[in-house]
Amino acid sequence: FRLRDQDGKPLATAALVLEGGEWVRVENRPDGAVLVAWDRSRKTGPAKLLFGWSGGVSPWEINDWTFPPCELLIR
After folding, report:
1. Better-predicted residue by pLDDT, 4 or 22
2. What angle do CA 30, 41, 39 make, to 5 degrees?
3. Which of 43, 41, 50, 51 is nearest to 75 (CA)?
4. What mean pLDDT comes out for the span 28-33?
5. Comparing C-alpha atoms, which of 70, 68, 67 is closest to residue 15?
């Protein structure tokens, strides 16, 4: 995954798993992309991920003022 700005240009993206970390994981890659992987055999419920453009790894860094964070729900 990689977020894009209002002009369609790619932004350095970071993500956190807020719920479902027992079966979903994210890898914040050095090139600014995020790799999302999951193991359905370990699924216990939905997973919620938070994506942000600032390249941070905490909710505060991801929740930047300029671009709001994006949530992804995996069921």
Report:
1. 22
2. 10
3. 43
4. 90
5. 70
Cα 54–chain centre separation: 11
Asked if residue 51 lies in contact with residue 40, where contact means CB atoms within 8 angstroms, the answer is no
**Bridge partners, residue 57, by sequence:** none
Closest CA to 67 of 48, 56, 52: 52
C-alpha 42/C-alpha 64 separation (Å) is 32
- What's the CA gap between 55 and 13, in Å, rounded? 5
- Which residue has 């941070």 as its token pair? 56
**Tokens 């240009």 label which residue?**
9
Burial (CB count within 10 angstroms: exposed 0-12, middle 13-18, buried 19+), residue 62:
buried
Torsion of CA 22, 17, 70, 4, to 10 degrees: -110
Q: What is the pTM of this model?
A: 0.77
